[in-house]
Automatic annotation (TrEMBL):
The keyword Aminoacyl-tRNA synthetase does not apply. L-homoserine binds at E190. It catalyses: L-homoserine + NAD(+) = L-aspartate 4-semialdehyde + NADH + H(+); L-homoserine + NADP(+) = L-aspartate 4-semialdehyde + NADPH + H(+). Residues 354-430 form the ACT domain. Catalyzes the conversion of L-aspartate-beta-semialdehyde (L-Asa) to L-homoserine (L-Hse), the third step in the biosynthesis of threonine and methionine from aspartate. This is Homoserine dehydrogenase. GO terms for molecular function: homoserine dehydrogenase activity; NADP binding. NADP(+) binds at L11, G12, C13, G14, T15, V16, G17, T18. Pathway: Amino-acid biosynthesis; L-threonine biosynthesis; L-threonine from L-aspartate: step 3/5; Amino-acid biosynthesis; L-methionine biosynthesis via de novo pathway; L-homoserine from L-aspartate: step 3/3. It comes from Actinokineospora bangkokensis. NADPH binds at K105. The active site is at K205 (proton donor). SUPFAM superfamilies: ACT-like, Glyceraldehyde-3-phosphate dehydrogenase-like, C-terminal domain, NAD(P)-binding Rossmann-fold domains. PROSITE patterns: ACT, HOMOSER_DHGENASE.
Length: 433
């Protein structure tokens, strides 16, 4: 193949990196034909070189900064993860004019502005399709295909590990820990799986999605985050009784206030959704994301959201794009943050709620609970009570209410003398009203 080779340094050779090496070397001739020049792997940085017998020893190094600084590196592919020292490596690469492909959502959600500024200064590319929703082409549609439209909402399942756990709890009755161990074994979970179960991973992805969708720099600190560790088998059963299922959702919205001012609302939390909702059927480590845009209407993106090979597919797609840009002498899209919308606090987010209470089974309890909802202007949509011996389970489903009003309602109810416990409070999404 004619053309000056595009020389690639790979940082990390774990679940994703191993598959990147396999695709890069196994499809070398096809990739060269697609790019217009050979794409050569010239170095692989890892932490423990003795664990990587499949990689030619001459390529391995434990000095990632040294590798990205080499003169014979044109493109850096980062699949290590974490914020430091990866931030320093990628800044060094970009400042030296080397394009970067990364799957690192944690870093992007923290330092996208700094990384894009370094890319702009040197004219390098920064691509990160694999950072959100694994194999699913989602960021390129937001960055490019929908660049002429006005996106109003992005909502979906963006974490494979938690979706795998919730699906297992519901379908097989598996315990939480058992399902998490299996997700880690299958290569879905982060190195520290609390990033998955506590919602950090999904929140980082929400920040990236909101940034691209609303042309605004949204960081982790702007995203409200709740994980799934508080979701119990009882919640799963309660959802089933109401013909609903529980999913960890990322929801990014453009909100227009009463005075016409726009803001961005980004949140990640578990929610009950109706079984009839398209997201309810998304099981295992699959992801699915709805995008709503004014002209395009509703779009749905679905596919494998985690795992080595699916993620490597997205990495390779980006690698081909930056290699083509190099060969053609052009650049990919830059950061688009001109709209600079304010972040809307979670207190103002409005959803429906499912509240489960353990109360004393005696006259006047239901009326007193209902009165607290009324005092806070939270309208009740449905009530279900099941008596036991002296106690009762009381479930209240509300109409849409602001988060702040709901929190105050629940705090007040928790203090009532006949309320033994607030068993769970969960948002209900995917329904009107
Ligand atoms: P792994 O933990 O499997 O692999 C991490 C790799 O980084 C290992 O090869 C490790 O080396 C190497 N590494 C760690 N520290 C250093 C260091 N200081 N210097 C050089 N190399 C180092 O992670 P994954 O492959 O699962 O994930 C990688 C990235 O991809 C993360 O950002 C993750 O969020 C993202 N991602 C992962 C997905 C998945 O499904 N797994 C999906 C989408 C994105 P060694 O092997 O020697 O320990
Ligand atoms: N840990 C992540 C997940 C990997 O489970 O979705 C994919 O980003």
């Amino acid at each position: 193949m004619a053309g000056t080779p595009v020389r690639v340094a790979l940082l990390g050779c774990g679940t994703v990196g191993t598959e990147v090496v396999r695709l890069l070397t196994g499809q070398a001739a096809d990739l060269a034909a697609r790019v217009g020049a050979p794409v050569e792997l010239v170095g692989v940085a890892v932490r423990r070189a003795d664990r990587h017998r499949d990689v030619p020893a001459g390529l391995l190094t434990t000095d990632a900064l040294g590798l990205v600084s080499r003169d014979d590196v044109d493109v850096v592919v980062e699949v290590v993860g974490g914020i430091e020292p990866t931030r320093q490596w990628l800044l060094a690469a970009l400042r030296a004019g080397k394009s970067v492909v990364t799957a690192n959502k944690a870093l992007l959600a923290e330092a996208q502005g700094e990384l894009f500024a370094a890319a702009d200064a040197s004219g390098a590319d920064l691509y990160f399709e694999a950072a959100v929703a694994g194999a699913i082409p989602l960021l390129r549609p937001l960055r490019e295909s929908l660049a002429g439209d006005r996106i109003t909402r992005v909502m979906g399942i963006v974490n494979g590990t938690t979706n795998f756990i919730l699906s297992a709890m519901e379908e097989t009755g598996a315990g939480y820990q058992e399902a998490l161990s299996e997700a880690a074994r299958l290569g879905y979970a982060e190195a520290d799986p609390t990033a998955d179960v506590d919602g950090y991973d999904a929140a980082a992805k929400a920040a990236i999605l909101a940034s691209l969708a609303f042309h605004t720099r949204v960081t982790m600190g702007d995203v409200h985050r709740e994980g799934i560790s508080a979701v119990t088998p009882a919640d799963v059963l309660a959802a089933r009784a109401l013909d609903r299922t529980i999913k960890l959702l990322a929801i990014c919205e453009r909100v227009v206030g009463e005075d016409g001012t726009e803001s961005v609302s980004a949140r990640v939390h578990p929610a009950m959704i109706p079984r009839s909702h398209p997201l309810a059927g998304v099981g295992g480590a699959f992801n699915a994301v709805f995008v709503e845009a004014e002209a395009a209407g509703q779009l749905m993106f679905y596919g494998q959201g985690a795992g080595g090979a699916p993620t490597a597919s997205a990495v390779l797609g980006d690698l081909v794009a930056v290699a083509r840009n190099r060969v053609a002498g052009g650049r990919g899209p830059r950061e688009s943050a001109y709209a600079d919308l304010a972040a809307r606090p979670i207190a103002q987010a409005s959803t429906r709620y499912h509240i489960s209470l353990d109360v004393a089974d005696r006259a006047g309890v239901l009326a007193a609970v209902a009165a607290v909802f009324a005092q806070h202007d939270v309208s009740i949509a449905a009530v279900r009570q099941e008596g036991r011996t002296q106690d009762a389970s009381l479930v209240v489903v509300t109409h849409r209410a602001p988060d702040a009003a709901l929190r105050s309602t629940v705090d007040k109810i928790a203090g009532l003398p006949f309320v033994n416990a607030v068993v769970s409070v969960m948002r209900v999404e995917g329904e009107d009203q």
